[in-house]
Design goal:
The complex is a heterotetramer of chains A (251), B (223), C (224) and D (53). Chain A starts with a helix and ends with a helix. In chain A, 84% of the residues lie in helices and 0% in strands. The N terminus of chain A is likely disordered. With 251 residues, chain A is mostly helical. The model of chain B has no long low-confidence stretch (mean pLDDT 88). Chain C has a domain of 149 residues: P-loop containing nucleotide triphosphate hydrolases (Rossmann fold). In chain C, helix 3 packs parallel to helix 5 and helix 4 runs antiparallel to helix 5. With 53 residues, chain D is mainly α. Classes of the chains: A mainly alpha (251), B mainly alpha (223), C alpha/beta (224), D mainly alpha (53). At the A-D interface, helix 1, helix 2, helix 3, helix 4 and helix 9 of A face helix 1 and helix 2 of D.
């Protein structure tokens, strides 16, 4: 047992740990496979040609962004209900990572749109909802990063976080209706859904695995960074209290 | 108990509004300016302005809502009032509902006047009154509820002017889309298209009123 | 230091109380006992934490350590003490655009106080005459202070927390405050007030507390 | 219609490579930033504070 004591005494020098190393390696393998299948082994699409290869990262990123957003709402609800810092930090970490994946989804969406629709941005229901998701996440993150006492900051962000996913659902619904009013279903909708199977479906499946593992890996690390940051703040606070007391006595 | 606090807050806010008249001599002229700006931007004689009227109307309402929410909460956090409110024994949910009512009433008045302005300036022809009125009703409740909740979240932060729009406007897109489409359905005399939007906005308003009633205590807690 | 052997828990009982303003530790470990029906005067330089101490006792600030006011544990249930205290802050806490009567009606009804008490407070503080329908924004410091005091009085608080009550008042304004404090204590309340006009407040005080660097340097009632 | 679409689509590969570079590059950069911040923070904290609850 002495080994674990010594480790505890010195403590890990980074946010890494055995679990993150395992997940990290698995993620790298999956990413490698995704690269291999996505760019070389899987065939061109009969209609879109190479452009379909962008979808192998675009679709999983979009899904993970929504999952991250749902996690933020769950975390916020549990913080408000149970006052557990662990869940609040999870909510914050997953919101930030969800924002990264939302950005990726938007960029790849536009890059996919250019060769297939001939234009970078189309008010397609999915893309528009993803753009709104980005704005909602930026609002949450802007609020969460305002310097204030942890409880104040956490409580306010939890209220916004609590409403994040319901907002996304309502926005998605309204954009869906709004979109079908003045635009025929886009190529994107039937292009992917109808005829993807065989090797292409397998590649997409790898995409989900790879992006999913990367999300988990990032989440664990980002959580620990947030945890350390809060600990550091407490540390500074204790020091500030000590200085404050000294200030009184000196006079 | 909650309704008593709500009545007290709404009464106080509306009396405050009546006495300071800021709504009348600042927000209303601002609304008129916005309408005229849109007219210049969209060259009134083309029918583009006519078609865009519902959208312009509701975008103007959103801006008015932002100023109204911003103002009412800046008053609440000046002169040590936020301390007195927390000491006053008012129910947080009552405070929230009172604010929603007072902001809602102020918005309704502005919407009526804006509606008159739009009808005159843009030669809009309102029809299908039941759909129009229910759109105004349910949209105003949604905007007031979300405005109060996010207004309170942003109330005492130094950067309130910038964070309130960033938090509130993206959240209000379903109301903007819903109310604009419902108005268009009314003007094109196809009300059937409009009613689903009323349903969506009703869900939106319900979510925010519920979130406000249960979450507001936590928000009022901190300075 | 075991509270059990004390006859009755003091109105205010703080041990190592820490309160934060944002991230600044305004109170950095305060030890303090104040007995019922006493008039405690809190002195100290600006920024020593006087106002934060009063706001903490009113249950307005999250606090850690041991903090007990009127039998309520402030660390966990600070909201429960709020309807039993009256807090006169350095700011008016009133709506400038509303008249004196509007303000008093609003605040007393919000606190669920008896309208008769509000009426009596207004008479005592000479607010029922010319000033009644004047907007608070147009009042002088002294008149605003009297309006705020009327709102505090009408609540019949068990603990009066007054932040610099004498500041900016003329001679008879200060006499008015002193009489109010005496009446309150006579009626069974306890008063804690911060003050710079030590000549005035010391005359009234039954306990003098000196704050420095967010802690009690003297007069925490030999608690150390 | 097919030939026109084909013409547009054939040069898709620059967009494909751009997408993949942005995604992999972005994620890698983000990961490096997080890990480095973790290291920096870990150094500043005394050992016992570094447990993740």
């Amino acid at each position: 047992m002495t080994n674990s004591e010594t480790v505890a005494a010195t403590g890990p020098l980074s946010t890494g740990s055995s679990t993150t190393r395992v997940i990290g390696i698995l993620a790298l393998i999956a990413m490698g496979a995704l690269l291999l299948f996505g760019l070389w082994l899987s065939p061109d699409d009969v209609n879109q040609g190479d452009a379909v290869r962008i979808l192998y990262i675009h679709v999983p990123s979009a899904t993970i962004a929504y999952i991250g957003c749902a996690l933020t709402t769950i975390g916020s609800v549990l913080y408000l209900w149970r006052r557990s810092q662990w869940w609040e930090l999870t909510a914050y970490a997953s919101a930030e990572i969800a924002a990264v994946f939302t950005a990726i989804t938007l960029v790849t969406g536009m890059l996919w749109g250019r060769p297939t629709w001939g234009v970078y941005w189309v008010w397609d229901a999915r893309l528009t909802t993803t753009a709104m998701l980005m704005l909602l996440l930026l609002g949450y993150l802007a609020l969460r990063r305002l310097p204030a006492d942890y409880d104040v900051r956490a409580k306010r962000s939890a209220i916004v976080g609590l409403l994040l996913f319901p907002n996304v659902i309502i926005v998605r619904q309204s954009v869906q209706w709004w979109n079908t009013l003045h635009q025929k279903p886009t190529l994107f909708a039937n292009g992917l859904g109808a005829r993807i199977e065989g090797l292409m479906l397998f590649t997409l499946f790898i995409g989900f695995i790879a992006i999913g593992l990367t999300f988990v890996w990032l989440l664990i690390h980002r959580f620990r960074v947030a945890y350390l940051a809060e600990q550091l703040e407490k540390e500074d606070l204790d020091r500030a209290i000590a200085d404050r007391r000294a200030e009184g006595i000196v006079r | 108990m909650m309704w008593r606090s709500a009545r007290l807050i709404a009464g106080k806010d509306l009396r405050l509004e009546w006495r300071s008249r800021v709504g009348m001599n600042q927000v209303l002229p601002f609304a008129a300016v916005v309408l005229v700006m849109f007219a210049f931007a969209l060259n009134p004689d083309s029918d583009l302005l006519q078609k865009a009227t519902p959208g312009l109307f509701w975008v103007s309402v959103l801006f008015l809502a932002l100023t109204t929410v911003g103002r009412t909460f800046s008053i609440e956090s000046s002169e040590g009032i936020s301390d007195s409110i927390r000491l006053s024994g008012l129910e947080p949910s009552g405070f929230f509902l009172g604010k929603v009512i007072s902001i809602g009433v102020q918005l309704l008045i502005l919407e009526v006047l804006l509606g008159i302005g739009v009808t005159v300036l843009y030669r809009a022809s309102p029809a299908e009154w039941p759909l129009l009125l229910s759109t105004v009703g349910v949209a105003t409740v949604g905007i007031a509820a979300a405005g109060t909740l996010y207004g309170m979240v942003a109330v005492s932060l130094r950067v309130r002017e910038t964070i309130l729009p960033l938090l509130l406007l993206p959240v209000l897109t379903p109301v903007l889309i819903g109310s604009t489409r419902a108005f268009e359905a009314a003007i094109n005399e196809t009300p059937a298209d409009g009613w689903p939007w009323i349903g969506l906005m009703a869900v939106f308003s319900f979510v925010y009123v519920a979130a406000g009633i249960f979450g507001f205590g936590a928000l009022m807690e901190d300075s | 230091m075991d509270p059990a052997n004390q006859p009755s828990l003091p109105v205010v009982h703080l041990r190592g109380a820490v309160a934060l303003l944002g991230r600044f530790p305004a109170l950095a470990g305060v030890d303090l006992d104040i007995e019922a029906r006493s008039i405690a005067v809190v002195r100290g330089a600006n920024g020593a934490g006087k106002t934060t101490l009063l706001r903490t006792l009113a249950g307005l600030v999250p606090v850690s350590g041991v903090a007990n006011v009127l039998g309520v544990d402030l660390v966990h249930h600070r909201r429960d003490v709020r309807n039993r205290v009256g807090f006169l802050s350095s700011q008016s806490g009133l709506y400038d655009d509303l008249t004196v009567i509007d303000n008093i009606n609003f605040w007393t009804r919000a606190a669920g106080a008896d309208p008769a008490d509000a009426e009596r407070a207004m008479e005592l503080l000479e607010l029922d005459g010319r000033l009644r329908d004047v907007r608070v924004g147009r009042l002088s410091t002294g008149q605003k202070r009297r309006t705020s005091l009327a709102c505090v009085m009408a609540r019949r608080p068990e603990l009066w927390l007054l932040d610099e009550p004498h500041a900016g008042l003329d001679q008879d304004g200060r006499d008015l405050v002193d009489n109010l404090v005496k009446d309150a204590v006579a009626a069974g309340a306890t008063v804690v007030m911060s003050s710079h006009e030590l000549d005035r407040s010391l005359a009234l005080a039954t306990q003098v507390i000196t704050l420095g660097g967010g802690t009690t340097l003297l007069g925490g009632d030999d608690v150390a | 219609m097919n030939s026109a679409l084909l013409a547009v689509v054939t040069q898709a590969w620059p967009y494909v490579s751009a997408s993949w570079i942005i995604v992999f590059g972005g994620l890698a950069a983000y990961a490096v930033v997080i890990v480095r911040r973790g290291k920096k923070l870990s150094r500043e904290l005394p050992p016992e504070k570094r447990r993740w609850s």
